[in-house]
Design brief:
It contains ten helices and 16 strands. The chain is an alpha/beta fold. The protein has two domains: 144 residues, Quinone Oxidoreductase, Chain A, domain 1, CATH 3.90.180.10; 140 residues, Rossmann fold (3-Layer(aba) Sandwich), CATH 3.40.50.720. The strands form three sheets. Strands 3, 5, 6, 7, 8, 15 and 16 form a seven-stranded mixed β-sheet that branches. The chain is globular, with a radius of gyration of 20 Å. It starts with a strand and ends with a strand.
Length: 325
């Protein structure tokens, strides 16, 4: 038997509770793992509070992320004792997730834990931080470089935004952090932001083409914020889009793309190929300052995840929430 955060739905309604589950009920897979840490992402928050159609199979064990140690393996790349990171691949949605003491996984989904990180640090990064690194790699691919001009990060006090600022600041970019929380200015500057702007400057409908400002953008918000960010991006700039905190709509025109050569790069972390994942984690190991990472982290036990998920959806959480399993 093992403990897990189980989500259930029935005629009686929805519930999210810590349950004792028999190991024989674990799904099929070629790696049996002991999970040491998980983390609370926006998608987890949607699932645990039942505020979004994330879960597509019931009952479900929550948790799209996890890090721990392999107990048993029939996969050639993994053996007992190996330490791993898992992000995405439908866990917590269509297959049991990692807010649990045990998990059965597919070896091809796992990334080897870089020696620079503990499993706790890996989950302080989690899908949010790994997504932020994929965004930085996309900016670099399309020509962004320190010294080229200001880089906008939206949703700045969230998980993706916080890690993105820490990464970009450490690499020497001049970062402007867009946030709705003026009280977080000291926190965001500590991470590496050069200046702060109120998110309301971006969140309302705007003109299709606006004054050029940003050399590059990392956007976790979507909707009007993304449209305005594109409209303000300088000639030849790049916008990496990875989230929808404001909404999934994109009320924009083609003007920035055909008149200024702006690139809109879509970032998917859930089904990204293993090579991209490994590249992102290897870069995180070299580019992310552990001190900046620790400033982002709040650690909670599994027993507090449900209440913390409600706080997350209410906008009361900043940075990254690590769950000790």
């Amino acid at each position: 038997m093992f403990k897990a955060l189980q989500l259930t739905r029935s005629d009686a309604g929805f519930s999210a509770d810590i349950a004792e589950i028999d190991e024989v009920l674990l799904p099929l897979g070629d790696v049996l793992a002991q999970v040491e840490y998980s983390t609370l992402n926006f998608k987890d928050g949607l699932a645990i509070t039942n505020k979004g159609p994330v879960v597509r199979s019931w009952p479900m064990v929550a948790g799209i992320d996890g890090a721990g140690v392999v107990l048993e393996s029939s996969h050639p790349a993994w053996k007992a004792g190996d330490r791993f990171i898992h992000n995405g691949w439908g866990l917590g949605e269509t297959r049991w997730g990692l807010m649990a003491q045990r998990a059965r996984l597919q070896g091809e989904w796992l990334v080897r834990l870089p020696p620079a990180f503990s499993t706790r640090q890996a989950m302080a990064i989690g899908t949010a931080g790994y997504t932020a690194m994929l965004c930085v790699l996309a900016l670099e691919k399309h020509g962004a470089a320190p010294g080229n001009g200001e880089v906008l990060v939206t949703g700045a006090s969230g998980g993706v935004g916080s890690v993105a600022i820490a990464l970009l600041g450490g690499l020497g970019y001049r970062v402007v952090a867009a946030t709705g929380k003026a009280s977080e200015e000291a926190y965001l500057k500590q991470l590496g932001a050069a200046s702060i702007m109120d998110r309301t400057e971006l969140s309302a409908p705007g003109k299709p083409l606006q004054k050029e400002r940003w050399a590059a953008v990392i956007d976790a918000v979507g909707s009007h914020t993304l449209a305005n960010a594109c409209a303000q991006t300088r000639y030849g700039g790049v916008v990496a889009a990875c989230g929808l905190a404001q909404g999934a709509d994109f009320p924009a025109t083609v003007m920035p793309f055909i008149l200024r050569g702006v690139t809109l790069a879509g970032i998917d972390s859930v089904m990204a190929p293993l090579a991209s994942r490994q590249q992102a984690w290897d870069r995180l190991a070299t580019d992310l300052d552990p001190a900046r990472l620790e400033a982002i982290v709040e650690e909670i036990p599994l027993s507090r995840v449900v209440e913390k998920a409600a706080d997350l959806m209410a906008g009361k959480v900043r940075g990254r929430v690590v769950v000790k399993i």
